[in-house]
């Protein structure tokens, strides 16, 4: 055993204290009861000195406590327990993590990052292994450890330089947290994770304040992997950027047509005066009706710009006065409402307030976010093929011919949802064309008084909006006419709600990619109060969402966000990128994932085409340096900043001793032993004191 701070053993001299106290301690003489002293001659007591140790067990415990304290403060450790030191011949394993986010487009950063990466590659020895990864919103492996090891030693540097030449910054945001987790996973291979190998991740980039680090909060950083920051800085510090202000869903664009943008100035900026205005593509430097903006360093200002009128081509807002233009443009397009096609099949008279169609029209109004097109068809007529092909929801309230029911079944298998709310039990005969429902029989029922919903499955998406206990009360919805189903149902059927009598009220019959939702009592006033309750409209929108027709578009999408494609299309759809290239997507694709640059994306062709503005992530404007302590706070082991070995400030023997002691922490066990001895000493001392004060009592 060795000691890291042996001078603390001098504290063991305090053991002399308890020994002296035990020697000079005067014990009280025992008292003997005596009847009377009046017949005895008094004589003065004779004093004698005694130097005899008493309570030897207590003395030993007290001395041992002081000895353990002194030994603990001297920080003992075993030299033979330290792990084997790193073998220089084993080399090192280094992951070069190169930032390719949009902020790296600033002047000089790409060249500086490439120079730093080249230096690490040039300094690598024959036994060293290097992997090259790039990151922005995603992580890409350019050179793996296996590819580096498979190349001849003389060709490895040329291989890495060729990979560096092909790397250029993109337009995505910087997600440093996921990139570090991915880089740490590169060391999971047993060949590169040996105990004699030094493992490090070298982060080369601007290390900006806007980097996303959230995934590191729930990630346990692996021991033995250090992160070496290699920051690059632009020649001119500071940066100003512009981005759209999120619009409230309840905002009235007609009453307030202004477009609001936020101008952000970095804390290290040298400029304060800027201009903001509308601009056209292909006319750099020209602003329509520019607005002067004063933004001190480290602050932001919101500017409202009037929407252009009678000015074709003004599709962007630009910022002037900044040295770095990568984040000085936002593209603007008014969000097009999502078109939702709904087909209603029934015998309702137009405008009849006693029919289900009357309430359905008023429950699905046109809003800024969505435009519901409600088409109608009579049960005895052929279903309109064009509307049926686009409709994600079909509402049926009457019996339809077998041919029409076969059409609906084919559309359900392709993803359409059919809501079947028969007006009478005779209308339920159409269910016989449905797979597994041929044996069902329906009867009309009028409960005494009224019926209520007694059992609801809030785990079903149709009732998800009402899962909160504040909205889960359906007792105020009364039903007067019901359609009872009797007979076997398929195993895939799911009862979403039951009446208080136990009969099914809402049943979900999945088929293929779609479903049939059966409602045993409709929402016409003669059937129930459902349409007049506060549950009807949320229930309908939950049904649209279940059908995949009410998916809200992403507000103000940024680079990398998907763009939802129109649902229910039967053919391919063309997507035109800002650079003019076109991609054709099949009808099975629900979204477009190729938003790799900011600009205007055109979805579709002809009159049905719509435009979507994609912009830069606002976080990329926050180019101030990221504090290294932020990484350390998240548990990342940050190593030294230079790749060259440095001479340690303390002798190697002392450093190894401190490392071994810090790993073993024997002093903790010594402190625990001291506390245990103090507990025993307290009990023994209490018993000894009790014997002295009560000599006639025997302590157990």
Protein architecture, described:
The structure is a single chain. This protein is α+β, with helices and mostly antiparallel strands and about 700 residues long. It folds into 5 domains: about 1-25 and about 50-80 and about 665-695; about 90-235 and about 625-635, Rossmann fold, CATH 3.40.50.410; about 240-335, Immunoglobulin-like, CATH 2.60.40; about 340-545, Class I glutamine amidotransferase (GATase) domain (Rossmann fold); about 565-615, no CATH class. It is about 20% helix and about 25% strand. The chain contains 13 helices and 30 strands. An 8-stranded mixed sheet has the order 16-15-17-18-24-23-22-20, with helices on both faces. Strand 22 and strand 23 form a beta hairpin. Helix 3 runs antiparallel to helix 5. The two termini are about 40 Å apart. The model is unreliable at about 80-85 and about 640-650 (pLDDT under 50).
Category by helix and strand content: alpha+beta
Provide the spatial order of strands within the biggest beta sheet. Answer: 16-15-17-18-24-23-22-20
User: What is the molecular shape?
Assistant: extended
| Helix proportion | 10-25%
- By CATH reckoning, the class of the largest domain would read Alpha Beta
CATH superfamily of the largest domain: Class I glutamine amidotransferase (GATase) domain
**CATH fold field value of the largest domain:** Rossmann fold
The CATH architecture designation of the largest domain is: 3-Layer(aba) Sandwich
Q: Uncertain spans, ≥5 residues at pLDDT below 50?
A: 81-86, 642-649
Q: List the total number of helices.
A: 13
Compute the CA-based radius of gyration.
40 Å
Q: What profile does the largest beta sheet have?
A: 8 strands, mixed
Number of domains: 5
Roughly what is the average pLDDT, rounded to an integer? 83
Based on DSSP secondary structure assignment, what is the total number of beta strands? 30
Strand content: 15-25%
Instruction: Determine the N-to-C terminus distance.
Output: 41 Å
